[in-house]
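Quick illustration for those who missed Monday's session on complexes.
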Amino acid sequence: MAKKSTTRANSESTDDYLKAILTIGGPQEDRVTGNALAEHLQVRPASITGMLQKLSGQETPLVEYEKHRGARLTPAGKRRALEVIRHHRLIELFLHDILDYPWDEVHAEAERLEHFISERMEERIAAKLGDPLIDPHGHGIPRKDGSLPERREVCLSELAAGNTGVVTSVSDRRPDVLRELKNLGIVPRAHLTVTERRAGSRPMRVRIGPASQDIPLTVRLSSAIYVSQ
Amino acid sequence: MAKKSTTRANSESTDDYLKAILTIGGPQEDRVTGNALAEHLQVRPASITGMLQKLSGQETPLVEYEKHRGARLTPAGKRRALEVIRHHRLIELFLHDILDYPWDEVHAEAERLEHFISERMEERIAAKLGDPLIDPHGHGIPRKDGSLPERREVCLSELAAGNTGVVTSVSDRRPDVLRELKNLGIVPRAHLTVTERRAGSRPMRVRIGPASQDIPLTVRLSSAIYVSQ
DNA sequence: AATGCAATTTAGGCACACCTAAATTCTGGG
DNA sequence: CCCAGAATTTAGGTGTGCCTAAATTGCATT
Ligand SMILES: [Mn+2]
Ligand SMILES: [Mn+2]
Ligand SMILES: [Mn+2]
Ligand SMILES: [Mn+2]
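Prediction with manganese (II) ion bound:
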């Protein structure tokens, strides 16, 4: 019924640190500060220090780290981070397309399972889905070889009035936001036109697809939407 | 990307201990000895003691335990054990039927994932499979309410010559054994007749289904097969 | 150049689940 | 009844990852 599951090659925590460094550092792979990591991972800064020391002090370090100068991924760390992200996004699509999960629930489930599926299962899921390249929220799925084409997308909240764009992706962290977006028809590939943009905290207004009416979008929503022009 | 996953209600280890106690204790739920648990879980006896103390000393104890007198599940512990077994067997069937896993690989994957899927995912998998009651190896899948009808099955290795039976289940731990059984056509619902049984370590011989020839079965194989007469 | 605060690191601890070695306790023969 | 050997428990440790409190360090701004 059980066996010696001693030490998994990469722990759940390690995976999460690597993903966080990749995400925060962005495509340019800037050095990431401890504070940013602490915020992102919801962990105290002191804990970050300890973990970075460990991750950078291993036989094959996953992180490059010097006191007070932040952290960045080593090639090995980046490889693992992309692998976990591949797991995450394949699982999301799988839950959505095969198990009929609503799109606001897939993220939480994938966030846990991404650490525990085998390479075999990754392969089977990818096959079942036909080696997909996009997850339910429009995010790119890293390929088996770790490649992930860069996107040219901007956050809708940064678009000025008059601009038009196609939704490329939406942030998947907040189920409530995802549900509202779905209701509004704001999903990847939808067309949006910014019809109004006032100063201050007045919500922007957008027209969705071929609609004749425009609707208001609070920052809570607009900042979760990414478009390409 | 991550969050405070502080303490899951039941840890992977806890789940494994509960499953082991249920399995070893059998349907009569005998008290299980520390040694048997140590053997089953591949852990030192001292570790068993510590864990049993913890599991029996909680707010709502999962285990009933008194020094030197072994352990048995409390109702709460049994409920959790059956829930994990339900997860395990649903996952096995799912991997086999939906993801086209070979039947000798499902056990290892399920053994890990059973601890991490949500109730939502359990529900979706069960729905996708049509609320199944039997896993790929012929084991019963506990129902949502925790019920699991008892089986009347005997191990093939205990059958005398001349007896006939229908395979009800096969042990799923050893991939190599499972592969051989599949090759021989020994799967749940197959008909077997014991044609020969000698003393000593001479392998028994069985006829499979309507075959005209009988084949030898070493104890390694016959002890993994359960039949009903 | 000085300083004052924010960011980071160190120190000391905790919970988990495991281990080894060294007690105990129990039990079945004699 | 007694006692050795087996089973179990206790004692003392380890590695992971987290926390709080108490240093440090570095940097922006005078
Ligand atoms: Mn996600
Ligand atoms: Mn996504
Ligand atoms: Mn199994
Ligand atoms: Mn099974």
